[in-house]
């Protein structure tokens, strides 16, 4: 850890401007005195420890405590098992009492950045959440600055909030007037029940043990889907006349109908009579093999319906072939899912 570099980073962010005048020039020691000065831990990120301290208002004589956790990774656990598709970053600020003259009580804010890995497409969505004592979405239920224990309720009290406990202790930063703290633990927990009330889940939020890099592609949602972009690109390869014909065809797309379950049952009746009987009775056959058979049947029938629909349009045979080929491949890949 490089305290001078850390301080400069904080100073640039305006976090310790009021303390800068109190810090004398640091005397460089000729000999290392501890392991932190001997070993390069490879983690000089600029914010290795949270800023924490006590300051006294020279006018009122009141003592104010402050804790800033500027960047902390949080891992998710469900019923004791670490989840592999959710991660968080927390930024927590606490002032006791608030610096604001409008509020003499304790003030706190928490920003959560939640990364959720999606299965389709393979990427991550990012969800920001903000909480504050100012609007009642964050409550400090206990604060012992001497012992280094703070307890929070994250979320409105009526909305099953997360119960969170933070433990820390002050450390010598080698910089007078710039106290820092060492986090011992950050732990949150909430118990939820699934919508149908059949399953209870204990969700835990634990501070990441060691720093690591989370390499995830991030999904940037646009006005249109990625699938629509691929389709639009395909349409631009058509002749101008076929592009005009496609625009007209889109207007009457409500007249297009896909295959019914009865058609699918008839399609597979000769090769899979039992599955056809299930469909006739309104029962969906289950199992990977049955789903694969149904997916192929639906894809084949979809292609037939599309060809029939295109046949009544102004699209040229070449244009029809291009679009049918693309849609047929998409249908075969997606099985029973309706294409765009």
Strand content: 25-35%
- Terminal Cα separation, in Å? 54 Å
Largest sheet: 10 strands, antiparallel
| Broad structural category | alpha+beta
List segments where confidence is low: pLDDT < 50 over at least 5 consecutive residues.
1-33, 44-48, 335-340
Mean pLDDT: 77
- General form: elongated
The number of E-state strands comes to: 10
Radius of gyration: 31 Å
The helix-strand sequence is HHEEEEEEEEEEHHHHHH
| Helical residues, percent | 25-40%
Query: How many H/I helical runs?
Result: 8
List the helices and strands and how they pair.
Elements: H1 3-12, H2 35-38, E1 51-56, E2 63-78, E3 81-96, E4 107-118, E5 123-132, E6 138-144, E7 149-154, E8 162-171, E9 180-193, E10 200-207, H3 226-235, H4 240-251, H5 261-268, H6 273-280, H7 288-311, H8 317-334
Antiparallel strand pairs: 1-2, 2-3, 2-10, 3-4, 4-5, 6-7, 7-8, 8-9, 9-10
What does the model show?
28% of the residues lie in helices and 31% in strands. It is an alpha+beta fold and 340 residues long. Strands 1, 2, 3, 4, 5, 6, 7, 8, 9 and 10 form a ten-stranded antiparallel β-sheet that branches.
Give a brief outline of the structure:
Helix content is 28%, strand content 31%.
